[in-house]
Amino acid sequence: MDAVINFFKEFSSMLPTIKVMDIVDILVVAFLIYKVIMMVRSTSAARIAKSVLIILILAGVTQLLNMYLLNYILDKILEIGLVALIVVFQPELRRMLEKLGRKNVREILSVKEEQREIDRVIEQTVQACEIMAKERTGVLIVFERSIPLLEYQKSGTVVDACVSSELLRNLFFTKASLHDGAVIIRNDRIAAAGCVLPLTENHNISSDLGTRHRAGIGISEVSDAVVVIVSEETGTISVAISGMLKRHLAPQTLEKLLLNELAPQREEKTRNPLKLLRRKQKENKDAKK
């Protein structure tokens, strides 16, 4: 208890000496730590971070126990490991820098701008899927999250374009050369189209599911991606997440699901009330039919 009281006494005595730049310094470090945590959320990155933490603990223990040789080896591993980490996380670092370069200062400091962009991407995707479902056009859209899909992106054609309903419909147009593959969406842009995805190895899924659905489930099993699928035979909309398939979704349900998965921090009350009212009216009309 005395240690806690002493800590707060020392902290209160330091408060008058804190300058504005000290606060800025702390906020910048906190922001960088947050970005690093977000970067290592993926399964592979988390394993690497866990390994580094174990080596750090072992290095500390060997130093306390005076195990000089083992401590020397671990120190050298950590020195080399810093360079190795930069190589391992090169795709994530490059993507972060590319995203930073595309934004101006106002956009970097504004979370609302990013939230509006996510809403726009989801809205355009839902519009395209609704139209293509009526036209019985096969669709396979993969929303990349924390686990990079660069390996599968390389199997397709680089697009690097803004997400729009018209572009998605053109990419999946039956006579288009890329319509049989998957579209990968990274952040707010279409990264690639015509991509080849791994098929699921789950033999318990329904036999009426074709290659498109099996590929969608497959990529959701090996990553944390959200996959939207439209059946070419029935026109039904499905979503695959973590190897689970949700089928026969209405466009409104698809929109809600994508918002929950891709923008979980958003609350219903923060969205446009007019848009919510129009959606409610549409849902009531559909229910009457």
TrEMBL record:
Q: Which residues cross the membrane?
A: 20-40, 52-70
Name the Gene Ontology molecular function terms of this record: diadenylate cyclase activity
Q: Which residues form the DAC domain?
A: 90-251
The cross-references to Pfam families, in alphabetical order and at most eight, read: CdaA_N, DAC
The residue stretches assigned to a coiled coil in this entry are none
Using the UniProt annotation, give all residue ranges assigned to the region (Disordered): 267-289
Q: Which SUPFAM superfamilies match?
A: YojJ-like
Q: Give the E.C. number(s).
A: 2.7.7.85
Enzyme category, top tier? transferase
InterPro entries in the cross-refs: C-di-AMP_synthase, CdaA, CdaA_N, DisA, DNA_integrity_DisA_N_sf, DNA_integrity_scan_DisA_N
Reaction catalysed by this enzyme: 2 ATP = 3',3'-c-di-AMP + 2 diphosphate
Q: Which UniProt keywords apply?
A: ATP-binding, Cell membrane, Membrane, Nucleotide-binding, Nucleotidyltransferase, Transferase, Transmembrane, Transmembrane helix
Q: Keyword Glycosyltransferase: yes or no?
A: no
This protein's record includes keyword Transferase: yes
- Role: Catalyzes the condensation of 2 ATP molecules into cyclic di-AMP (c-di-AMP), a second messenger used to regulate differing processes in different bacteria.
Query: Which family is annotated?
Result: Belongs to the adenylate cyclase family. DacA/CdaA subfamily.
What does the record note on quaternary structure?
A: Probably a homodimer.
* Protein name per its UniProtKB record: Diadenylate cyclase
